[in-house]
Each structure stands twice: as C-alpha cells, then as structure tokens.
Amino acid sequence: MSAPDAPSRSRIAAASFVGTAIEFYDFYIYGTAAALVFGPLFFPSFSAAAGRLAALATFAVGFVARPVGAVLFGHFGDRMGRKRMLITSLLVMGLSTVAIGCVPSFASIGVAAPVLLAVLRFAQGIGLGGEWGGAVLLATEYAPPGKRGLYSAFPQLGPAIGFALGNLLYLALGASMTAGSFAAWGWRIPFWASAVLLVVGFYIRVRIAETPVFRAASAAGQTSRVPFWELLRRQPGVLALATCAFILAFTMFYTITTFCLAYGTATLHIGKTTMLLEAIVAALVMGAATLWFAMLSDRVGRRRLCLAAAVVSGLWAFPLFWLLQTRQPVLVGIGMVVGLVCFALLYGPMGAYFPELFRVRYRYSGASFAYSAAGIVGGGISPLVATSVLARTHSTAGVSWYLIGVAVLCLVCLLCLGDTRAADFTDGLAPEVSREARSES
C-alpha cells in the first residue's frame, strides 16, 4: 500500500466524519432495535415493560464498555498516534455490529441469545470508546488557529447522520414488510448493512496521515509512557468536571431518541412510523444546529454556548413531554426538534472544548475518557431511569425533574471550567505545526 498523502481539508473532513457517522449508525441502530423488537425476541418470559427494561439494559452495556475502550485506545493513541487507533476502533465496532445481526433469538438458543447480545454490545462500546476522541483529535489537531470549532464540526456531524441513516433504513423496512417478518429477521438488515459502510470507512481512513501536532510531540520525545495515569496525576479535577458537565448531552439525546421512542409507541400508542419520522427530522435539524454552534464557538467561546445549553435544556424538560402527550404529530415533532437543538448547543462546541482541556501528552486519553464516562450516566443509565420512573409513577414528571437535575449539574461544572478557545493547543512543542495545518487546509 502506498504511503498516505498529505491531507487536504476535505480529506480531513471525510476521515473524521465518516468513521463517527458509521460508528454512531452502528451504535444507534442497536438503540432503535432495543426499543422496538429486542424485548420479545430476547426476553420473551418478561412482561412487556420488564422486557423493554431488559433490552435497554443490554443497550446500557455499551456505555459501560466505552470508558474501557477510551482507556485502551487512548493509551495507544497517545503513544503510537491517532491514525492507527482510528482504524482499529472502526474495525472493532463494525465487525461487532455485523455479528449482532447474526445472533439467534431466545427461541432458538435460549439464554445464550441475550448473553451473546450483551457481549457483542460490550464490544461495540469498546470500539466507540476509542472512536470519538480520535476523530475529534484528527480534526482539531489539523485545524488552523481560530478554526478548531469549525474543524471539530466534521466528526460532530456523525451522530446526526448515523442516527438518521439507521432510522431511515428501519422506516423503509417497516413499510416494505409485515410486522411478523420485521420481528423475525427484518431488524437484522441494518446490522448487516454495516459491513458495506465499514469497507468505505476503512478505505478513507488508511489514506489519511498522522496529525501534525502528534508528529511534533513524538519527534520531541513528548509522548507519555502511561498517558492515563499521567492524566489522573496532572489534571484529575479537569477530568472530573468535564465528565460531569457533559452527562447532560447524552441524557438529552438518549432521552429523546431512545426513551421517547419507546414511550411514544408503547405508552402513548403513536404509530411507529410517525415516531421514527419525527426522530429523523429532529436528528437532521440537530445536525445543522451542531455545525452552526461548532462554528459559532470559534467566535464567542465554547463555555458560553455550553452554559446556555444547560439553561435551555432545563427549561425544556417539562414542555418536551407535554408536547409528546398531545399525540399531535406537529407538536410531537416540535418537542423532539427543540430537545435535540438543546443537545446540539452543548454537543457542537464540545468537539473542540474537550481536546482543548487536555495536554497533548494525554489528550486522546482525556478527551475519550471524559466523553465515554459521561455516556455511562447520560446514555446508559438515563433511559433506564426514565423507563423505571414511568413504570412506577405512570407520569413523566419525575423524568423531567431528572433532566433538570442533570442540567443543574452541568451548569455548576461548567462554571468551574475556563474557556479554552485561545489555549495553546500544541503545548508550545512546535510553532511550525500551525503553519503546516494552514498549508494543508
């Protein structure tokens, strides 16, 4: 294979975007399947509510695995480079996703079915734990001064596109086959389709060069032997604050895209097609908002936008469910769209904010772990909490108060963190890094 070319801005954008889009597609189709079909397929002896809880528990397993993947990929990403880990994480995630599509149901192999499902979901989480941090570092470590927010938007668009693509496929399948066929085998097609996306992503990523910031650190002998341990010794407070601050992003996203999907279809009896369409529209609006807020953060600062996100997310906690409970498609759509715009207001600046908080020596470890650890509570636990509260109280008021509590936590943590827009991103290692990034963009 020939040596990778010096990348243009379009190639940096493609390499950082395509992997996150594929990996979030993989991760989200599991969430959709867990909300719609996994309960009766893999937990048939449970009641309907308990089956949904059990299916969402296997969904949460992926979030538990993500910090493990963050430490593992972060260690080698900070020692050996960003590119190798990005390729490896893509393969781990993609192969695990295809395998999930091949797991037999409980009726075929008994208890081994949910066990296999949980194991493969754990592997998915390992892969995604290394993906996001590497992708945003690939983008931001190539970015010219003053444009890190813009460059970080490339991988940040992955969730919107991945979510919309997965749900569009589920929508098409639901419209083209009977409910019985979909439950029996149709739900597997999105998982198998991941193989095609995996090949495309692999090809693009092997053609990208290592980032100039990491090359400068490596040439200067400024890589760490044990990056995560050094991170814990040097910036433990920043790590804790960053993790807690961004629990809100995951909480908002998965409450809307996973809990609300299950709540709308199972409790409010809104049609599955309607809910999927609403979610797709909301995700596309979210993608556009993510791009805008990421670029805006280059002008007004990361923290200012994140603080605004905490406030508006708390304010929207009750109206979100009031609108869903009308069962009117337009109002349901407004509730979901505004909720995901609140998410984008926090998520857009986050792609540049997280890498800027940590030094080059352990930046992959720091950004990946904070992001993944926040996902345990926000993405893994929040849908479980919401489902459990709803089952016990038959009301969404408790879910809204939970969202408000997470928003307050985010606000407090952000007030303890500084703004990083003007931070020295190279740690003063090599002034030529900025010139190289400008010339390659």
Summarize the structure.
The chain has helices at residues 9-36, 38-42, 48-80, 82-100, 106-109, 112-140, 148-156, 158-176, 179-184, 189-206, 212-219, 227-234, 236-245, 247-267, 272-300, 302-324, 329-357, 363-393, 397-416, 432-440.
How does the helix and strand content classify structurally? mainly alpha
- Overall CATH architecture: Up-down Bundle
Helix amount: over 70%
Strand content bin: under 5%
Number of helices: 20
The number of domains is 1
Structural shape: globular
Q: What's the Cα radius of gyration?
A: 21 Å
* CATH-level-4 superfamily name: MFS general substrate transporter like domains
Which residues form runs of ≥5 with pLDDT under 50? 1-5, 433-441
User: What is the class in the CATH system?
Assistant: Mainly Alpha
Task: Note the run of SSEs as H and E.
Answer: HHHHHHHHHHHHHHHHHHHH
Largest sheet: none
Give the averaged pLDDT, no decimals. 85
Beta-strand segment tally: 0
CATH topology call:
Growth Hormone, Chain: A
Q: Give the N-to-C terminal Cα separation.
A: 25 Å
